Amino acid sequence: MPADIKSFCVELFKVNAIKFGEFKTKVGLMTPVYCDLRVIVSYPKLMETLTGLLVEQLTRIKNIDILCGVPYTALPIATCVSMSTSIPMVMRRKEAKDYGTKKLIEGVFKLGDKCLIVEDVVTSGSSILETVNDLKAAGIACENAVVLLNREQGGEGILKKNGIKMHALLTMTELIGYLREADCIDDSVVVKVKAYLKEAQVDASVLLKTPSEDRLKLSFASRAKVAKNPVAEELFRIMTTKQTTLCLAADLTSSTDILNLAEQAGPHICLFKTHIDIIEDFHPNFLKPLQEIAERHNFLLFEDRKFADIGKTVELQYRKGVYKISSWAKVVTAHSITGKGVLDAIKASGEGAGVFLLAETSAAGSLIDEKYTKATLKLAEQYPDLITGIVCQSPLFLQNPGLLQLTPGVQLDAKSDGLGQQYNTPDNVVRDRGADIAVVGRGISKAKEPEITAEKYKSILWDAYSKRLQE
Ligand code: 5IU
């Protein structure tokens, strides 16, 4: 391989893909060496050699389901690697944000697919991280990047800190060594480049800011500190103290049964989710013992009311009627279908409840589409102090670690319930679908021993969260 790569370097030099002199970089600094692999598409033979070298490199990387080239230079390179290895490829759209509803990732993939990144040159690693962020947002796992040239300016370390192992064919030091050997450059150029490399190390702290905010890699304890909604902050703290991310859906119709379930599962949950209007023997007196249990076991009461009317009606539904939800529920759910009014009404009540906004559902045949989901996230952004989190089925948001992802449709033993509910396993929702809190209902309430079952779900979920932090 060294012989191959040496002559390949010389060929790159000959076609001006590597140049020496004085060049301005993207960020305005001067560099004595410039690599521009964009020309390579004009030299099919060189492309073939590069493909062969990359393919050889990637045989050492295990578990690759798909490939993705960093746009644009590495797109044709990734295509060649995909054709040569028969590993399918996906494409990241750079401009999708401007189009609003267009998909960021084109191609066929499954949630949790492991993607190998293909890139030509790495300086800071920021281009790779941009691509990785979008892939992760689509539920694709990224751990490895195969690249032609490591410029040795800090990119490898930055990528590593972000969970990406870089497999480079070549370092800048090796490249200039080979070119010197082949008499393409003289000693003075070698000295200049080496001096430059020493000085021009990338300031990792600036670059790390965005990627390190990826909530999936941050502990709940650290996320508590950046939560803007007080209920989210409290939840992060409860989750950390009790080591639980379990929300129990208490969809029972008798108040005694609900109180019993709360007492049994109490030690293992962070949220107790009710549909207060399904209780057949509801009396306001029922709320007091429920609040007492919640306090004793340190969990929050959560009414899954899914407010969806005009603001004025929501205000009444929230504060009045038999249930007086605002007087006891610390958290409620809301639809985004009617827009701001719902959130304004809840906020104006001044009760300090947190809201989980519904961006996706676990129901088969749901009418919610990508456009609606995105608009919901935008709406949530406008109410940072009110929104506790987002109810969804996939890691829709990564860059806002103060928000919680709540994911219902979780069960170990069933795939569906015959009425459109779709279940995933606890491990899957946390590690592949980005759930911070998992909602489990019948998986626990219908179990023979709800207390033991709640504890089991709690520990599987916590395990999955711990693994996610290390992945
Ligand atoms: N719930 C869902 N899916 C959703 C939303 C809410 O299941 O997309 I939004 C609620 C309905 C029920 C609980 O109260 O979560 C799930 O209960 P089971 O685990 O018993 O299916």
UniProtKB/TrEMBL annotation:
Q: Quote the EC number.
A: 2.4.2.10, 4.1.1.23
Quote the CDD domains the UniProt record gives.
OMP_decarboxylase_like, PRTases_typeI
Q: Which SUPFAM superfamilies does the record cross-reference, listed alphabetically? A: PRTase-like, Ribulose-phoshate binding barrel
Keyword Lyase on this protein? yes
The molecular function GO annotations come to: orotate phosphoribosyltransferase activity; orotidine-5'-phosphate decarboxylase activity
| Pathway the protein takes part in | Pyrimidine metabolism; UMP biosynthesis via de novo pathway; UMP from orotate: step 2/2; Pyrimidine metabolism; UMP biosynthesis via de novo pathway; UMP from orotate: step 1/2
The Orotidine 5'-phosphate decarboxylase domain is annotated at 245-457
Q: What is this protein called?
A: Uridine 5'-monophosphate synthase
Please name the InterPro entries in this protein's record: Aldolase_TIM, OMPdecase, OMPdecase_AS, OMPdeCOase_dom, OPRT, Or_phspho_trans_dom, PRTase-like, PRTase_dom
Query: What family name appears in the similarity comment?
Result: In the C-terminal section; belongs to the OMP decarboxylase family. In the N-terminal section; belongs to the purine/pyrimidine phosphoribosyltransferase family.
A Pfam family found in this protein is Pribosyltran
User: According to its UniProt record, which residues of this chain constitute the active site?
Assistant: D304, K306, D309
Biological process GO terms, please?
Answer: 'de novo' pyrimidine nucleobase biosynthetic process; 'de novo' UMP biosynthetic process
Q: Which UniProt keywords apply?
A: Decarboxylase, Glycosyltransferase, Lyase, Multifunctional enzyme, Pyrimidine biosynthesis, Transferase
Annotated residues for binding of substrate: D251, K273, S362, Q421, G441, R442
